[in-house]
Amino acid sequence: MGPRAEPGAAGPPAGAAGLPAREALSRLLRPASVAIAGLSSDPGKHGRRVLSFLRRFGFEGPIWGINPKRPAVEGAEVFPSVADLPAAPDALVVALPPPAIAGVLEAAAEKGAGGAILFSGGFAETGAEGEALQARLTAIARAGGMRLLGPNSAGVIHPAAGVVMSFLTCLERPAGEIRPGPVGLITQSGGTGSFIHNLAAERGSGLAISISTGNEADVEAGEALAFLVDHPGVRAIALLIETVRDGPRFLAAARAALAAGKPVVVCKMGRTPAGRRLMRTHTGALAGPERAFEAAFSSLGIQRVPTPEALFEVAEIMARCPLPAGEGVGVLTHSGGTGVMLADGAEEMGLSLPPPPESLQARLAPFLQFGAAGNPADLGGIVTAPGRFEEAVRAFLEEPAYHLVVPVSTPHPPAHTPERARALVEISRASPKPLLHLWLAGDIGAEGLRILREGEAPVATRAENLLLAAHGLVELGRMARGEGAPDGGVASDGGAAPAPDAKARARLLALQREGEGRLLNEAESLDLVASFGLPAVERAFVRTAGEAVRAAGRIGYPVALKACAADLPHKSEAGGVRLGLGGGEEVERAWAEMMAEVARRAPRARVEGALVAEFAPGAEAILGAVRDPVFGPLILVGTGGTAAEALGDVAVALAPITPACAAALIGSLRGRALLEGFRGAPPADLGALAELAARLSEAAAAWGEWIEEIDLNPVIFSGGRWRVADALVRLRASDSGGGSAPGGGASAPGEGSAPGEGSAPGGGSAPGGGSAPGGGAAPGGGAAPPA
């Protein structure tokens, strides 16, 4: 289930004359009439450039200028004000400085305009004053039923419709070079969008439509994404974004793209601290945790790429390919070194390269010249019989083990190039399987590359881009078959989260009354986690050394002793943990030493008592959940307890997830070997761990109004079962309840959440605490919830 929308939040307005938001947006992006506020006779001004481009690219509707001075401008009649226009324009292009915009928007709203594109900067990206002005413009538009694109927008380029409401320099190319293509582009950076248009033009391709959303005062990336899902000319969608402002809308649009079979590729900028600092001064965007974006992208089959160049090439390849029916990738080339490079890249990306069956090896044998019939297959020399390459490609396509085939052309005799390229185009058109061409022949093979592109064959000139496209297609194919995703689970089908248990609800209400938005102590946290159906170690909360000795005797030695204080989440750092205690005297001595050390190292900690818990070393994992302010509940899995956070070996997905998706998350971890029986240790039950992760994800979705963060670290496999050994729960403040996003930025799991306690020497972990089953109440007077 995706995150709930904020109650009372201002969504997109109805359009002019009360049109639904989607229709109003269509009126702005596919206008039948355009007005340009600030149109002048100066050909270098933005307004004049827009007029020139609209005329040159064939816009057939009326174009009106607005300028109190009424300059003579060829190609448009100029009026002194919006009120003087002969009709309400569908789209108003505003090429004016910030102080003049509000009045024009008020007049446009009164006239009944459909929407406006704001080119100017000087708004939220400049600070409080600019942010206030931007908010005023948004309020004017919404009150008048208009849609706004921008500020800081570079406009809309829709070649097939002749709608070119932009000033970008890419439009100075010959009109025939800004042609339609299969990819729709959404960008929060106008200049980079211009580069992508130029890149497409250089390759003989184009974009179906590009939309520059800028500061997103009204129309934001998620709504533009939904618009492109409905666009008949768009077969794949490319996103160049810094952030997502409306998580629910973005997730809904991404799910719609997934259902429509339109691949989504994203280049997410602002990954580093330096990049995030610059975001605020670019379009006023605030950065969210990167793991939240990773979770959203992987859960919805969105392929992430590192650069704008990769964005276009990967999106265009995916737009031209059917989805594979399985995961097997077959690669053939006539360069052994290239084969090794691709094998490395495929393994790093998690792509499967099954070895060729004996039947295929036998079929390939006559084609080999000092090559090898592996996968990748190296055909060796091809100078004497160039037709062998196409025959080998057909052999790979006819092999059932391969669901996606990659022919790689490295430098070869130029005389062979045209014949090879035309044959590959024919094979691509006839093949029901995706055939992704990697053309590494350099300028000596430029003619072949041109033939492939003109034939609309999926082709890349960089190995990493081809592998990214292959990965994206395999993931989407897996999702289409209902098999989840190997690199981060899959979003739920939108079904309702489990209903919150009445007793757990009462427990949470009692805890919130004791302190809204507070961090629970370990006893309270473990009791709450147990009420969600997650098994925990046997434990007891105690207030004196004598109670600790008696509890240890009931639980059975060895035991762990841990100081219990809500404001002491990192207990081991304050000396608040003692492990492997073997008898009553050890417990008494450990109590005295531990309490003294905590008092010395954390004198402000309000220690309420301690937890005595069974000490059961074993294989360790970390499970976590957090409510991201943009995307809602997220679930995290990792191996190795606290080491998982230190090493970054975690996987994150949108919550809730199924056990199968949880298993895929676990399988993607680098440290999963630690759970599979590392160096003779008994293997842990990974299926049972996946069940626990799915159960936690359901709790995170069901209790998102109540809980900000759950950290279970470590979860230990001992005695043939998994149990939570340490827990940390942070409640949400009441002003962030009701399903709204929290007021502060919650960290993604593993990004700032307090970890569990450290491992015992030799690999044992400090188990958690709380009341033992059937035992005493948690501190604070609340009754322990039923298990």
So how many helices?
A: 23
Low-confidence stretches: 1-18, 274-288, 485-497, 736-787
Rounded to the nearest angstrom, the radius of gyration is: 30 Å
Helix content: 25-40%
Q: N- to C-terminal separation?
A: 25 Å
Multimer state: single chain
Question: Averaged pLDDT, please?
Answer: 85
Strand order of the largest sheet: 8-7-10-9-11-12-13
Q: Beta-strand level of the residues, as a percent range?
A: 15-25%
**From the helix content, strand content and strand pairing, which structural class follows?**
alpha/beta
DSSP summary, beta strand count: 28
Largest sheet descriptor = 7 strands, mixed
Anisotropy-based shape: flat
Descriptive account of the structure:
The protein has 787 residues and is α/β, with parallel strands linked by helices. The protein has a seven-stranded mixed β-sheet, sandwiched between helices. The chain has a six-stranded parallel β-sheet with strand order 3-2-1-4-5-6, with helices on both faces. A hairpin with a 3-residue loop joins strand 23 and strand 24 (632-639). It is flat. The two termini are 25 Å apart.
Label this structure with key terms.
disordered C terminus; 6-stranded parallel beta sheet; alpha/beta; flat; 28 strands
In short:
By secondary structure, the chain is an alpha/beta fold.
